[in-house]
Amino acid sequence: MPPSAPSDDRPLRLAYLSYRSKPTVGGQGIYTRHLTKALVDLGHEVEVFSGQPYPVLDERIVLHELPSLDIFNDHYPGRFPAYWEIKTLPDLVEVLQFSTGTFSEPLAFSHRAYRALAERRTDFDVVHDNQCLGYGILAVDRLLPTLVTLHHPITVDRRLEMDVAPTWRKRLSTHRWYSFVKMQARVARRMPRIVVVSENSIDDIANDMGVDRNRMRLVHVGVDPELFRPLPGVERIPGRLITTASADVELKGLRFLLEAMAKLRTERDVSLTVIGRAKKGGRSADLIERLGLADVIEFVTGVPDERIVELYAQSELAVVPSLYEGFSLPAVEAMGTGTPLIATSGGALPEVTGTDGETVLRCEPGEVDSLAAALRRGLNDPDLRARLGAAGRERVTRLYTWRQTAKNTVGQYREVLALRQERQARAARDEADG
């Protein structure tokens, strides 16, 4: 039997699941690293179970590696595993689903996580799944009270990728790739509690995935204001912009920023730092070459947070050109450094970044002229940049810190434990009455 639920103030023993956790780029890895550290800072015990790429964690946190077949690694993405690599049933599940053209990591990881936790069900009070939502998570929930974080519905990513697919064959392959979204929706509808990072995401998850709003709770993502802070000793480089983007992910809107930069280069000197990995031969690389921007764009990846803070400090404007965001960690990190922010109105960005002209300069998603106008507005007015930077910093330190995220998440853990106790009590009464 699972252990009895702890009292409201006793530290919790947490098993945290993340099917992939890129440490320096990618929201899941950043969320994993900072949330688990903040939970330990509050006095809770945390063990992380993750597939590749593995997260960077606080030294107090134990990492259990649950290796996938690493089909979608950075060096050979989409490789087909050799037969001798298939050693377990989850391995077989992963390669068979991949053979149909579907992203196979979430389903396979969920079965690996269930196997790992089945042997240790008395060691934990609660399980936290970070947006895996494979069918195995339903089995995990039968073992132990389980909570899921769902940052935003992947249905949005699928819709945007389908819209830009150039051929019917590409649309068909994109649809197959994202077919795991149906599984995630089915699992999400059956979970007792879903933590969601914005009101906008609550609406989209309810509409796109059919999850009952009564099962969802809002817990904002955070930032470490002591790390992401202004660096007064670092001079900003005139015309320098900074953004965080996966190069060829349509959702992130990098191509619209590149086209806006090309317009601005006819008027002034501008340059761009992209926190992310360049994809050789990809759509963004082709566009950079076609627009003649190669000499003014730098991609930076694999660097520590301290270096990212320095890059923000060197930039006159931070830009979030996304078509959609469920929250946007890059937005609050930029604001935390006091770097004036330009952001679209896509998804939760207005909710997160505040009022146009006060804490952010707003533009329309997917509209190059609107983005170029916002960039021009910010670059032309140093006093406006100073006001935006200071107000953005104040907003973040007041609303979005990892410590507050952890406290609110713990409140949801305790609610999940109470729900499990109520369910067990009802079952015991029914058995006695029967």
Number of strands: 13
CATH topology of the largest domain: the name is Rossmann fold
**Count the helices. How many?**
16
Overall tally of structural domains: 2
Q: Per the principal axes of the C-alpha atoms, what is the gross shape?
A: globular
Instruction: State the major sheet.
Output: 7 strands, parallel
Low-confidence stretches: none
Question: Can you identify the CATH class of the largest domain?
Answer: Alpha Beta
N-C termini distance: 22 Å
Radius of gyration: 22 Å
Q: What percentage of the residues does DSSP assign to strands (E)?
A: 5-15%
Helix content: 40-55%
Given the helix and strand composition, which structural class is it? alpha/beta
Tell me the strand order in the biggest sheet.
3-2-1-4-5-6-7
**What is the N-to-C succession of helices and strands?**
EHEEHHEHEHHHEHEEHEHEHEHEHEHHH
Would you identify the CATH architecture of the largest domain? 3-Layer(aba) Sandwich
Q: Indicate the mean pLDDT.
A: 92
Q: Give the CATH H-level superfamily of the largest domain.
A: Glycogen Phosphorylase B
